[in-house]
Amino acid sequence: MPGPTPTPIHLTDRQKAILDQQLRRAKCPRDLFQRATIITLAAEGTSNSDISRLVPANPVTVRTWRGRWQAAEERLLAAEGGDGTTKDQDKVLEATILDVLCDAYRPGAPPHLH
Q: Long-range CB contacts (< 8 A, 24+ apart) of 27-33?
């Protein structure tokens, strides 16, 4: 029995180009590579279970990153700016994409004094 329909992901041509550029880098960090692959496959319409088998990743991880990308879509479109493709706009968009794909800040346990 199929599960719920996954959250749709929409990528603009510039977003797709930046994600592809990150995936082709010789020294792309593993977590960034995994997350960019998840978003790219999700935009192609691949189901969460198929993505989790292809990447490989836990299905919960796939759902998490699909949801985070969707939540940041307005921010990504704003960073994309107008219809021009200047180097400055591309740098802003790339920085925004990398920020979206980064781990959320977690302060951790407070320090202990002995």
A: 31/103, 32/98, 32/101
**Is it the case that residue 75 has pLDDT exceeding 70?**
yes
Lookup: tokens for 114? 């002995």
- pLDDT-above-90 percentage for the chain: 25
- Burial code (b: 16+ CB inside 10 Å, e: under 16) for 14-37 equals bbeebbeebeeeeeeeeebebbbb
Nearest to residue 38, comparing CAs of 4, 6, 62?
62
More confidently predicted of 104 and 19? 19
Contacts of 50 (CB under 8 A, 6+ apart): 41
The pLDDT-based confidence of 82 (bands split at 50, 70, 90) is low
**Residue 6 preceded by cis peptide, ω within 30:** no
